[in-house]
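Encode chain A's predicted structure.
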Amino acid sequence: MQATFEKKQVVSVDAIKSELSTRIDAAGFSAWIAPLEFNVSDSSLIINVPNQFTADFVSTTYSNVLNAVAGEYGMSVKIRIVSCANVIRKTANDNNTQTYSAPVVEDQRTGDFDSFIVSEENAFVVSACKKMAKGTATFSPLFIYGPAGCGKTMLAGCINAAFDGRVVMMSGAQFVAEFARALHDKTIFAFKDYCRNCDTFILDDVQNLAGKRATCEEFAQLIIELRDAGKNIVLTANTAPGNLSGIEHRLQSLFASGLVVDVAAPSRAVRKTMLVNAGVDTKIADTIAGRISSDGHVISGVVNKIHTYMELMDGAITENIVEKLLADTLKKSKSPVAMVRSMCEKLGVSYDAICGNGRARALVLARQMMMVVLKKVTGMSLCEIGAYVGGRDHATVMYAIERIEKLKENDLVMSAQIAQLVDEYK
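Encoded structure for chain A:
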């Protein structure tokens, strides 16, 4: 009682913050509590926050410890939303000038939209990126996702190169490392200013933030403040926002609040064009395109290998040489059984279930999609196709193909998925 009475006599904001720092983990305190303005009015501890997101997060995550500490001083807690500028100006005025030096990275203002091969599947995402680069987009953030090697980073770099203004571009791994460095060096305010003092902010590979709670909290705050200030935000990831594991739903929904677009893996036609543009003979490019994976990184490796061979061996490239040179890269022709097993992995079902009698909706749909792919790729009869998916008869396979063709008309995701499988197994 005596200790509580003494605390009531002299209420020090610094003492309250010091007490909170001992009860909240260092990263959480530095990222969320330290930057806020604390005031005492009558019997209330007033905490000024810059926006509703911060108010919700602080009250939800730290309400117990805030109420406990305030209670020791005989006060209740009130969280009040004020302008971000007021909060930063007052809390940062500690007579210490913070400086932050950005890490030296490779120049990311490379590439242009003319060098990105636009296919029918990617026309929408490229148009969205061009609009963002012109500064005329009415959506932010722009969330671009797709498999490895589909061109996400290249599109982000094209926006960087084409935008007429200050751009801050980082990878997810760099943001995590720089946030940790700023906390360690006590330059967190300078780091925040560096990220916010731009016209466009680009973060490549957002999935690298997964599992880093304090970093995710800081990044959520950054997105909200940039968006509220009318700045452009571009994010890339290997999957859609709702499928990002290790990232809270609140941040996932923030990612999805602008425009979410996917980048399709390079089709056979795109792969051939990429090889021809890199100087590979048209006939050889046609041969290679159908037997390499739809991964831009792999295609780049193939081009480098061919160019290096021609330079070192001083000879022309023939199909026989390509066959030997790229033996570790070119895909071998797959048997129908191998195709079915491979499709099982891609569609997330077991081979035994596909060949069994299970009638679960997702299982039946996957089985029917496989029948369509086998029909388009192999040219087998309906009876032969049925034999490879559990001994289905002619009528069952015919019904499955007709059903999937109808579903494709209204399901663009399924249509793209089947087209990609067909392209891969041709």
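The chain has four domains: 2-91, 113-262, 268-325, 336-425.
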